[in-house]
Amino acid sequence: MEEIIFVRPTIDLREKGLEYREEHFKYGEKVIDGAALLDELNYEKWIDRVNSNWNKETLKSNGVLSHTFFVVRKTDDRIIGIVDIRLELKNEITRRYGGNVGYSVRPSERKKGYATKILNMAKDYLYTLGKTCVMVSCYSDNIASEKVILKNGGVLDRKVKFNNKIVHVYYILMSGEKFKFKLVYPNLEYKKQAEEYIEEFLEYNSNINGVGGLDRFLKNSTYEEWLVKIDNDLNRKVTEQKVPTKTMFLIRENDNMLVGTINIRLALNEKLRKRNGNIGYSIRPTQRGKGYNKINLYLGLCECKKYGIKKVMLDCEKSNLGSSKTIISLGGVLEREYLDEELNEMEQVYWIDVDKNVEEKYNLCKEFLVD
Question: Domains in the chain, start-ordered, CATH in brackets?
Fold first, then answer.
């Protein structure tokens, strides 16, 4: 394969850029992936858009911080592709579907290995800017694009719907990197993600646990009012109806994604001692089966330790083998089983020694924790 380089678009490249665009159109392609709207705007307005997206000082309110390049073959200076490298995933489309890299190869230059090389170069470009995790995606029926992503080390993270089609979302981690997690107290920064989080549970018709009433507030009130509510929850006095609680988001730091929640009851009344206990938690449906709840619970135990809680009670349905396995892996000792007449399910009650297991299980979890 001949050498290719990334070239920042300029007015001087207008003729070549328009010729590149026209070839896509001649092949019946109305949308050019990674073109940052070159397929919709006139060239001068497109250059203005690309330049404004380049850094935070010039970024417009609706823009995405990104670096867009023509991909040029050195031997003949021909534009053989285009790539849009997004430095941040702050809007819904980039965060859920679009990812860090979008790219295209002109139709007459395909099946020559250029797509694999472009993604590899874009990945390395992001690494040089301090990114250790690159998100890329493709439609489930785009086998060629999927092969390109896999050749570059992509690992399937989730499947989501977009435009009535299934999108496969992949991550490419820098060599030696792991996904790392932290608990974050909810704030306005996570408003949109919190809404998407609850929407995902509803889409999958899944039970919602450990959200401190977030689902109810989004249905009947506002996220902002929920923030006030959870602040008040922290200062409750223990009664037979209520106890002080702390609700937190589990954040995957590599992409700042809200992947789980945990609700910690900082004291127990008689009602909670019979069922529910100290902790309720959940992982969003598209992120299950990856061991994230183990990290969620470990960080929850660390939070309990801060509040001087020595032992915590958790319960789960006996049929929920994943949840019981998580609890046992972090030191849970089965105390009893009971029939939940309301759910008609057998429940199991576990207790965890907080200080002991925070220390003993640290090595099990440390490579996935934010320093």
Answer: 4-132 (3.40.630.30), 181-368 (3.40.630.30)
